[in-house]
Amino acid sequence: MNTANINEFISFILSHTQKLNREKPYKKSEDSFFDNPLLVETIQQIDYGVLIVNSSNYLLFMNKEAMRALNLHKEDYNIKDVSLLFQHKNITSIKKIDDCDYHFTYSNNKISTYNVKLKTLSDNNYLMITLKNITHVKNLQQELEVSKLKYDILVNNTPDVLIRLNKKGDVTYFNCGLTKEINIDPHKVINQNIFEVFPIDTAKQIKATSDKVLQTKNPSSFKTNILINENNYYFIIRLYPDIDDHVMCLARDISEKISIENKLEYLNIYDPLTGLFNRAYFENKLEYYNDPAFLPMGLVICDLNSLKLVNDTLGHSFGDTIIKESANIIQSPLSSYEEACRIGGDEFAIFFPNCSKSLLEKYKTTLLERLESYNLSNPKLPLSFSIGYSLRETVDTDMETIFIAADNNMYHEKLLQGIKNRNNIVQGLIKSLSSKEYKNEDTKQFLLDNVVKLAKAVNYPEHNLDNLKLFVNFHDLGQVSIPNNILYKTEPLTAEELNIIKRHSEVGYKISLSIPNLFHIADLILKHHEWWNGEGYPLNIKGNSIPLECRIFSIVESYTAMITNKPYKDAISRKAAVEELKRCAGKQFDPFIVDKFIEIIEEELDS
User: Fold this and answer.
1) For 270-433, which CATH superfamily applies?
2) What is the Cα 349 distance to its own chain's centre?
3) Hey, what CATH topology would domain 158-258 get?
4) pLDDT of residue 422 exceeding 80
5) Which residues sit opposite 242 in a β-bridge?
6) Residue 19: CB partners within 8 Å, gap ≥ 6?
7) Which residues, 6 or more positions from 570, have their beta carbon under 8 angstroms from its beta carbon?
8) CA–CA gap between residue 480 and residue 434 (Å, rounded)
9) Shortest CA distance to 518 belongs to which of 469, 576, 579, 449?
C-alpha cells in the first residue's frame, strides 16, 4: 500500500475541514435536513459520489456512488472517521494526476480516475466531497492523444504536401514531406497567402480551384510543374472542401511517374542508343508515306559493315560507339522533313518525301564523303556502309515494295564490297594492335628465329614453317580488345582484369576466321596459351592435345618475354630465364621441347 499518497490525499481533505466554523459544535439535531427523504433519494441517484463531513472530520453522509468509488460494503458504512475511510484496505494508492483528478488504485490492481472537488456548505459548517468517475473520459482522452500522435506521425512523414487554406487563400496549416527538397519552412508559411508561398502561376491555379471547391462543395484537382532549386517538379494537386470555409489541399510529387511516362513515350518512337526513330516508328511511317501527296517518295537503306566482327573483337561497348558515330553521320546532312530510323542492330532507313533520284544519289555521295572524313580522323577502326535506295514515283507501287527494293540494292552492294570492307576493318584492327606492341623489331626477329630453330630441333615439317611464322607474327591479334590500362598495368591484376586478358585468345581466333590469309592459323591463335598440365586457357586442354606449334611457341615466347624489358616489368638474365623454364617444364611447358630449347640456348651462351 502506498500510504504516502493516501496520507497526502487525506491531509488535503482535512486541511479543508479545519477551515470549517468550529464555533458551532456539531449536534445531530442540527442535521435534520438529512431526514428529508426526497433530498436523500436525489443525492443517492446522482452519478457521482457525495460525502458530507463536519468540522470534526466526522462522516455525516455518503451516497451509493461514493461507496462504489471507495470500494466499501454495507458493513463498512459504520466507518465515520474520514481519515480511516480513505485508508480502507481496498484502496492501495491515491495518486494526484491533475489539479482535481486522482487515480484510485484498488487491491485488485484496477485503477479508476476520479475528479475530486471540495465545497463548504451551510455557513461554512460542513464540507461536501464529490467524487466523479472520469475514467471513461480519461481513457477517451488518452485514445484521442494516441490517435493524434499517430495522425501527426503519419502526416509529418508523408511524402505529400498537405495545406489547409481559408477562403482568402491564407495558409492555416502546412505540412510538407518535401521540406528539404522544396526548401520551405512549414512554420514560416502559416498565415501567409499562397501567392507568397508558391510561384504566381501555381498560386493562381490553387486559388481558382479553391474558389470552385468552396462554391460547389465538390473536390477538384489539377496537374502543375514547379521549378524548385533549378529542378523541375511535377505535382498533382487535389483540393477538398473542409469545415469553416476552408479547403484542404493535397499536393503529391509525381515527378518520377512523369519521368517514367516521358521515357516510355520516348521509347515508343525513338531508339535509345542513337536518338533516331525506331523500328516501330519506321513501320508506321512506311504505311503513312503511301499517301500520294509525298510522291516521288525516296527511301535509303544503310547497313553498317562488319559490326559483328567489331562486337566480337572489341566488345559491344565499342560496337555501340560506332553505331552512334554512324547515326551521327547519317543524320547530320538531313533536312527537318527527312527522317532517319534505326531499324535493326546495324541497319538504318531514311525517308525522303517529295524527292528525286538525283537527291538520293547526292545523299549517298555525301554519306561516303563523310565516312572518308571520319576514317581519316579514326584510321585505327574505319567505318563503312553498304547503301541502297529506291524511289516510289507512282501510286502503283506501295512503300513496302520500295523498302524491299532498297534493301535488295543495299545487299547487292554489300556482296560486291564485302571482302574490301572486312579487310579495311581487319587492317584497322592490326594497326590498333601495332600501337599496343611493346616488342621492337629486334625482339620480334629474335622470337621468330628461335621459334624456327626450336621447330627444326623437334623435327617440325619444313613445308609448314611458313604457316608457323605467320602464326608467330599474328599470335596476339586478340590483344586489340585489351585496354592499355590493363595491358600495361604494373600492379597485380584483379580477377575481372585477368578475365579480360584471357579473352584475347578467343578474340584473335574470331578475327583470324574473318581473314582468308589467316583462317588456317585461327586454331593456333586460340590455343597458344594452353598449358601442358591442362591449367591454361581458354579450353583447358593438355599434353599432346595442344598443337605442336603452340607448344613450341609458348616456350620461346615466355623465354623472350623474360629477357626483354617491358613497360610494366624489367628483364631478367638469360640464365635465370633458363632456370624458370626448367621449373615450369611438365607444368606449363612440354618437358621434351623445353630440354631441346635449353640445349639451343646453352649452345648460344657457350659460343
Assistant:
1) Reverse transcriptase/Diguanylate cyclase domain (3.30.70.270)
2) 35
3) Beta-Lactamase (3.30.450)
4) no
5) 246
6) 120, 124
7) none
8) 9
9) 469
Residue-wise pLDDT tens digits, 510-530? 888 877 788 999 999 999 999
Cell of 120: 463548504
The Cα 122–Cα 484 span in angstroms is 108
Range with lowest mean pLDDT among 1-5, 128-132, 558-562: 1-5
Q: Tell me the DSSP string of 68-128.
A: HHTT--GGGGG--BHHHHTT-TTEEEEEE-SSSEEEEEETTS-EEEEEEEEEEETTTTEEE
Mean pLDDT of 590-600: 96
Strand partners, 582: none
Residue 181 — left, alpha, or beta (φ > 0 → left; ψ -120 to 50 → alpha)?
alpha
In words, the CATH class of domain 3-137 is: alpha beta
Spatial separation of the C-alpha atoms in residues 349 and 347, rounded to whole Å: 7
DSSP 129-173: EEEEE-HHHHHHHHHHHHHHHHHHHHHHH-SSEEEEEETT-BEEE
Q: How many CA atoms lie within 13 A of 4 on its CB side?
A: 0
Buried b (16+ CB within 10 A) or exposed e, 70-81: bbbeeebeebee
Q: Contact at 8 Å (CB) between 121 and 127?
A: yes
Question: Domain 437-606 sits in which CATH superfamily?
Answer: Hypothetical protein af1432 (1.10.3210.10)
pLDDT over 60 at 270, yes or no: yes
State the Cα–Cα distance between residues 308 and 314, nearest whole angstrom. 10
- Decide: 220 and 212 in contact? Cβ < 8 Å: yes
* Residue 251 parent element (H or E): strand 246-253
Check residue 546 and report its DSSP letter: S
For the stretch 175-201, pLDDT in tens is 866 555 566 777 788 999 999 988 899
CA dihedral 547, 548, 554, 556 (to 10 degrees): -160
What letters, b where the CB count within 10 A reaches 16 and e where it falls short, cover 591-603? eebbebbbeebee
Q: Is 531 exposed, middle or buried (0-12, 13-18, 19+ CB in 10 A)?
A: buried
Backbone angles phi and psi of 47, in degrees to 5: -90, 20
Write phi, then psi, for 58 (nearest 5 degrees): -95, 130
Q: pTM of the entire structure?
A: 0.63
Task: Give just the sign of the alpha carbon dihedral 576, 577, 579, 584.
Answer: positive
More confident call, 256 vs 17: 256
CB half-sphere exposure, 5, CA atoms < 13 A: 13
Per the DSSP assignment, residues forming a β-bridge with 350 are 300, 340
> What do you get for the CA distance between the two ends of the chain, in Å?
113
Q: Where are the alpha helices (DSSP H) in 158-240?
A: 179-182, 194-197, 200-216
Asked if residues 333 and 367 have their Cβ atoms less than 8 Å apart, the reply is yes
Largest CA distance in the chain: 150
If we measure between CA atoms, which residue out of 225, 228, 175, 173 comes closest to residue 202?
225
Rounded CA-CA distance 419/437 in Å is 27
Please name the helix (run of DSSP H) or strand (run of DSSP E) that holds residue 253, with its range, or none.
Answer: strand 246-253
> Range(s) for CATH 3.30.450.20 in the chain?
3-137, 158-258
Identity at 364, one-letter amino acid code: K
